[in-house]
Amino acid sequence: MLSADEKRELDAEAAHYRDRRALGIEALKIVQRHRGWISDAALGDAAAAIGLPPAELEGVASFYNLLFRRPVGRHVVLACDGVSCWIAGCERLLQAAAERHGLRPGETDADGRFTLLPVACLGACDRAPVALVDEDLHGNLDPERLAEVLARYG
Amino acid sequence: MDRPLTGNIGPDGPLDLAGYERAGGYQALRKALRDLAPADVTKMVSDSGLRGRGGAGFPTGQKWSFVPMGAAAPRPKYLVANADEMEPGTFKDRLLMEGDPHLLVEGMILAAYAVQADVAYVFMRGEYHLPARRVRQAIGEAYARGYLGPDILGSGYRLEMHVHTSAGRYLCGEETALLNALEGKRAIPRAKPPFPQAAGLWGKPTVVNNVETLCNVPHIVARGPAWYRGLGRTRDAGTKIYGASGKVRRPGAWELPMGTPIREILEEHAGGMRPGHAFRGLLPGGASTDFLVAEHLDLPMDFDSIAHAGSRLGTGTMIVLDDRTCPVGMVRNLEWFFARESCGWCTPCRDGLPWVAYVLDDLEDGRGRPEDLALLAEQARLLGPGHTYCAHAPGAMEPLQSALKYFGDDFARHAHEHRCPWR
Questions:
Q1: Which residues form the domain of B307?
Q2: Span B135-149, mean pLDDT?
Q3: What's residue A100's pLDDT?
Q4: CB within 8 Å of chain A, chain B residues 176-205
């Protein structure tokens, strides 16, 4: 079952679409926002709320990289590995993330604080290399600035 | 110089509704609803010469003209702003949405009026949190002022507008895949025909336009097609948001007359190459465009000139390759991107792109063979136009085939020396 808050948010979105099936992505994003990630139970709750078989919604969930079907850390770091960030040295940044912070692409660090995921171009190439931490965009990163940025997230 | 797209954008954040109105905002909408029939708006946009700014360059008025009109047309009809900006190296729609969200909203209302759409969506990529907040705020203000809703400015025209935030994947930017995503499905492309204007969202007539394209519309309606045509420096009309990233002195984006020469953009606006770096080439409009090199620097950055040189204007935001960056490594980065973002729907793309990327890995990591060059050239042909369901794999082959053409010696050195000379 969706919680009262989740249901209220879903109902607000429902008014925007003529077909409840179209709510699948919204429903998954809502449960993810409230529960951190989309467990099988959460996926089942979302599917039931919009009247879709869970297997069908799983087909949607497995397609989109911002829908997390595995637990993630308290903060998600989306590190841009687009070509402009690559030219600007994002590989050096990923190396620093691994060596200094124990963060490897696709993994969550030991204390569950960060999950690091590579992501397609974040559309801020004039500030390359960039990364998104939760909803905050950080640009002109180098290993030192990365350390400063990560320190702000508990 | 006229900067219709970015004239309102300043360091203090976007204009609110009152500020936007003081700057002349929503006058085009008032004019259209008072004086112009929907077909008149479409005609103005056709006459203006506006071409789609998402990459394909299709004439916008012509795109709209395919929408069934009149009492017998299927309803509801839809207008979608493609704000899924994810083409590597492209950062122009973010600038517009963060900087002047009401311009997009007004452009969308005008476009929707032209095709008599009932519902409009902004399809926003999931990572664009700040643009989503600002566009939602602008839509809310527009509703409150009567620019959206059941009877816009007493004209009897009715439009609702929503923001859909996506959940990732590059393919959502392809217009038919975008429609599937908006319907809550996997973002795989649809066969064309039928084109979305005839059967799009939920099978109803739908127009999908890029954000920058739509932001031009209020100005065309307010100031007329002749003014708009006159903005361009070549046959192509209007202004364009150009950008440059890579090892240039001042990476950035600038609104300039359409047809501004590449050299002028690179030298005057981007400040030239960074000290110690020499220019080797550039992708003129994102990852899925062919490399251009020094001999092309005096070309005007417009659709036809860049096409004649064998590339595409694309999104107009260029990615510069310098002499201290390995061209094979750059292409490897691009091909892994395309491989990762393939939706998997058709086999050549799903299986071919990773294979290409592995061959590039071999070259970069010292396992390359001289025959790999011919293999890559063959793949560039097999994954090119006509072999796949959508333009994803052909787009992926554009930087590869042109890199083989212009930087073939560098590829050969990787194979013969069994190492990357840049590492």
A1: 239-322
A2: 98
A3: 95
A4: 181-187, 202
Tell me: pLDDT of B32 over 90: yes
Q: What is the ipTM of this complex?
A: 0.96
Furthest C-alpha separation in chain B? 73
- Cross-chain Cβ contact A124/B94 below 8 Å: yes
Q: Based on the fold, state whether residues B118 and B27 are members of the same structural domain.
A: yes
Residues B67-110 have pLDDT tens digits of 999 999 999 999 999 999 999 999 999 999 999 999 999 999 99
How far does the CA of residue B167 sit from the closest CA of chain A (Å)?
Answer: 5
- Pick the residue from chain B with its C-alpha nearest to A28: B167
Residue identified by tokens 């009247």 is: A51
Cα distance between residue B199 and residue B124, in whole Å: 22
Same structural domain, B248 and B200 = no
Co-location of B208 and B310 in the same domain? no
What confidence tier does B333 reach under pLDDT thresholds 50, 70, 90? very high
For testing contact with chain B, the best of A10, A33, A69, A87 (most B CBs within 10 A): A87
Contacts of A25 in chain B (CB under 8 A): 166-167, 181, 184
- B164 with B298, same domain: the answer is no
Residues in chain B: 423
Instruction: List Cβ neighbours of B209 (8 Å cut-off, separation of 6 or more).
Output: B52, B54, B60, B63, B79, B80, B81, B82, B111
Task: Using a CB–CB cutoff of 8 Å, tell me whether B368 touches chain A.
Answer: no
Look at phi and psi of residue B165 and say left if phi exceeds 0, alpha if psi is from -120 to 50, else beta. Answer: beta
| pLDDT at position B1 over 90 | no
* Span A23-59, pLDDT tens digits: 999 999 999 999 999 999 999 999 999 999 999 999 9
B414 touches chain A (CB under 8 A): no
Find the closest chain B residue to A133 by CA distance. Answer: B127
Q: What is the CATH number of the domain that holds B297?
A: 3.10.20.600
Instruction: Mutate one of B75, B85, B185 to test the A interface: name it (highest A CB count within 10 A).
Output: B185
Q: How far apart are the first and last CA of chain A?
A: 30
Classify B119 as helix, strand or coil. Answer: strand
Q: Give the chain B residue nearest A18 (alpha carbons).
A: B202
- Per this entry, what is the length of chain A? 154
B369 φ/ψ angles, rounded to the nearest 5 degrees: -125, 150
C-beta separation of B32 from B157 below 8 A: no
Mutate to test the interface with B, among A16, A92, A121, A130 (most CBs of B within 10 A): A121
B363 and B314 in one domain?
no
B205, B249: one domain: no
Give the predicted TM-score (pTM) of the model. 0.97
CATH code assigned at B150: 3.40.50.11540
Domain edge (last residue) among B278, B295, B322 = B322
Over range A125-153, report the average pLDDT.
97
Interface A–B counts its CB contacts (< 8 A) at 137
A9 touches chain B (CB under 8 A): no
Residue B50 lies in a domain: yes
Are B309 and B332 members of one domain? no
Query: Per the structure, how many domains does chain B have?
Result: 3
- Residues B43 and B90 placed together within one structural domain of the fold: yes
